[in-house]
Design brief:
The protein is mainly β. The protein has one domain: 7 Propeller (Methylamine Dehydrogenase, Chain H). The chain contains one helix and 33 strands. The protein is globular.
């Protein structure tokens, strides 16, 4: 079975967390790159066996991102910890000892380099490298004002910083390999927007989670309404692209295009090599999450409550599926879809997971893992299990913060 990455979560202007996760083995993680997959149909799970297998919810936790690799689930806790959890049993393996402050940008990614099996965290203090088997700190590279969610290659871990630079650090040592400055040529604010309102506590910039295909690193600068593509080896800028709205979600990298969501209500497809617009799709609300692409189609969610399927060749909407709406706040979608053969899986912020036939857009099943809880991460998968994090309902204060494992087939 082949897998395609899915993900991104967020709220308008508010900080729910950076998600930048590297894909390993059969894991599909928040903040990773979309990869090509055959458009040939396969057997669709029925949802009859969908159920919660375990829930990990230590008292006082505030989970906001999750990834999985080789049988271990790694979850970010905004109280300053990383938790490693056995994917089968839900039992904690370790909790990081160092205080890792996550008040602003943050995220985590797993090393793809088998010679250096580490977990990398971006936070208010910069970069941390943790031993994936014990949680022991391997190195820490301090960056003033902190960094957003990182992306990882075989040689470097890379993230945008709140000081207006992008940094690349050596995987094994944390030594800074290059810096890229992005404040000097910051574009003018689009009409009706003031970048000062998008930045937090006087910080000069607000970068979002980075992603990489091993050759380029791509990230959005929220307050500048633009995305930057950089060479991973040198930090040289390859191109930048401006939208007309703030950009919260993590960009996605497909076979030929990259996909950018914007609060101007559009999803943009940009030629990966040239940085030129190929097409854009107008939705009914801001686009906060990333897209997932197959060989022909791209799938993404909008805060108008719909999951969209778009023909990548011409940018034509093939179908859209309406998720449930809340009478007060509508149906925001912050996550990036996961595509497995002929099924698209999507988490809605209001707490439900949807499985939709990717050819017809018809609902196969829907499932609410925890009552009265909001889903604030992307879905990540390994084997027959799906993982996510939840938080208390923002309006009622009910529900709980937890890491949840679901058997989905």
């Amino acid at each position: 079975m082949r897998y395609v990455a899915g993900m991104s979560s967020g709220r308008l202007v508010s900080q729910l967390g950076e998600i930048g996760i590297a894909a390993l083995a059969l894991a599909i993680v928040l903040g990773t790159n979309a990869v090509a997959q055959s458009d040939a149909p396969g057997p669709a799970p029925t949802g009859q066996d969908t159920r919660v297998i375990w829930k990990y919810a230590p008292k006082g936790s505030s989970f906001n991102a999750v990834t999985v690799s080789k049988g271990t689930v790694f979850a970010l806790d905004r109280e300053g910890k990383v938790h490693a959890i056995d994917a089968k049993t839900g039992k904690v393996q370790w909790t990081s000892g160092d205080d890792i402050p996550m008040g602003y940008g943050f995220g985590l990614t797993v090393s793809p380099n088998q010679m250096f099996p580490a977990l990398f965290v971006g936070c208010d203090k910069g970069f941390y490298a943790l031993d994936r088997n014990s949680g022991k700190k391997l190195w820490h590279t301090a960056i003033d004002l902190g960094v957003a969610g990182p992306a990882c290659t075989n040689a470097a871990v890379i993230a945008g910083a709140w000081d207006g630079k992008v940094y690349a650090c050596a995987l094994a040592t944390g030594k800074i390999l290059w810096e890229h400055e992005y404040l000097e040529d910051a574009p003018d604010d689009p009409p009706g927007l003031d970048g000062n309102n998008a930045r937090l506590r006087g910080r000069p910039a607000r970068p979002r989670t980075a992603t990489t295909d091993g050759k380029m690193v791509l990230l959005s600068i929220f307050d500048q309404c633009r995305a930057l593509a950089l060479d991973v080896s040198t930090g040289k800028r390859l191109w930048s692209y401006n939208t007309k709205g703030w950009m919260y979600g993590t960009p996605s990298i497909g076979p030929n295009n990259v996909f950018l969501g914007s609060q101007d209500d559009h999803l943009y497809a940009i030629d990966k090599e040239m940085g030129k617009l190929m097409w854009k799709v107008k939705t009914g609300a801001r686009v906060e999450g990333g897209a997932t692409s197959t060989e022909r189609f791209a799938y993404f969610g909008s805060c108008d409550s719909h999951l969209y399927a778009v023909d990548q060749t011409v940018g034509r909407v093939v179908w859209k599926y309406a998720t449930e709406k809340d009478p007060m706040s509508g149906g925001p979608i912050y996550s990036r879809p996961v595509v497995i053969e002929d099924t698209v899986y999507l988490a809605s912020f209001h707490g439900k997971v949807y499985a939709v036939n990717r050819k017809s857009g018809e609902l196969l099943w829907k499932f609410q893992p925890l009552a009265k809880s909001e889903i604030n991460s992307d879905l990540v998968l390994e084997g027959d299990r799906m993982f996510l994090t939840t938080r208390k309902d923002g309006k009622l204060g009910e529900g709980e913060s937890a890491v949840v494992a679901i058997r989905w087939k």
